[in-house]
Amino acid sequence: MTPLLELRNVSKRFGGLTAVDAVSFSIEAGELVGLIGPNGAGKTTLFNIIAGVYRPSQGQLLHRGDAISMLDPARIAKRGIARTFQNIRLFQSLTVLEHLLVAQTCRGLGLLAELNPLVSGAERTRRKAAMELLELVGLENRHDEIAIHLPYGAQRRLEIARALATSPELLLLDEPAAGLNDTETVGLREMLDALRAQHYTILLVEHDMKLVMRVCSRILVLEFGKLIASGAPAEIQVNPEVINAYLGAEA
Ligand SMILES: Nc1ncnc2c1ncn2[C@@H]1O[C@H](COP(=O)(O)OP(=O)(O)O)[C@@H](O)[C@H]1O
Ligand SMILES: [Mg+2]
């Protein structure tokens, strides 16, 4: 079977620095894969390579078997690879629900229905889909509120719902737990559990080790740009190289 995403020997050099060093892995549809590693390990660079922000200096990226290394971010997004950012980026005056309605049209998926006056149910269908997503992230009761008035944790979940509203095949989440308090982290964990149950395909960069170990089916570990381990959370937790590189340093 062709993987959803495959990296073959991908490297990224910035001048003399090799930020990502000959990394190979693949992600199958329906997996929730964690990407961890110490600061400076190359996680964000790898994210940016997948999202088309950086071209790899070497190696190949394949989406459903098609080479995508040369595509720009807009084309990557059109192919269904969506991402969230570490800082929150919401519209000033839109409600929670409106954020999702705007996002739904981003890949042009709703456009035909939009232009066709005969498709009278299109608007209702879109609202229904958006409300289902809000339910998934626990925001259904706040759909009419102005998004930027939500508490921080809820804003983060809205950003994820907005990315999901584009109907992505692969979602890249960049440190979604950053800045969350304990209660908000529990809310995020429950949301990630729900997304996993619905078989969304997700690559999660996250520093909260408890969260990563709990929600991911598989974990990739980067150190100095190199992939030093890949496996189930239980394997990663006892891998001596990983403990040495990362977990040990945290304790
Ligand atoms: N645009 C850039 N130009 C030069 N060096 C960079 C750039 N982006 C990242 N780096 C370097 O690449 C390495 C990996 O960074 P990064 O991918 O941000 O790591 P992580 O996200 O794992 O903390 C670091 O040494 C960082 O300083
Ligand atoms: Mg980073």
List the helices and strands and how they pair.
Elements: E1 5-14, E2 17-27, E3 32-36, H1 43-50, E4 58-63, E5 66-67, H2 73-78, E6 81-83, H3 96-104, H4 111-115, H5 122-136, H6 152-164, E7 170-174, H7 182-197, E8 202-205, H8 209-215, E9 218-223, E10 226-231, H9 233-238, H10 240-250
Parallel strand pairs: 3-8, 3-9, 6-7, 7-8
Antiparallel strand pairs: 1-2, 1-4, 4-5, 9-10
Helix pairs in contact: 3-5, 3-6, 6-7
The structure holds adenosine-5'-diphosphate (ADP) and magnesium ion.
Residues 43-44 line the site of magnesium ion.
Number of helices: 10
Report strand order across the widest sheet.
6-7-8-3-9-10
Ligands, deduplicated: adenosine-5'-diphosphate, magnesium ion
Query: Any idea of the CATH topology of the largest domain?
Result: Rossmann fold
Classified by CATH, the class of the largest domain is Alpha Beta
- The general outline is globular
Strand content: 15-25%
**SSE sequence, one letter per element:** EEEHEEHEHHHHEHEHEEHH
Distance between the termini: 40 Å
- Model regions low in confidence, pLDDT < 50 over at least 5 residues: none
Radius of gyration: 19 Å
Instruction: Please identify the structural class as seen in this structure.
Output: alpha/beta
The proportion of residues forming helix, as a percent range, comes to 25-40%
Largest sheet: 6 strands, mixed
CATH homologous superfamily heading of the largest domain:
P-loop containing nucleotide triphosphate hydrolases
User: How much is the average pLDDT?
Assistant: 89
- Corresponding CATH architecture of the largest domain: 3-Layer(aba) Sandwich
Strand segment tally:
10
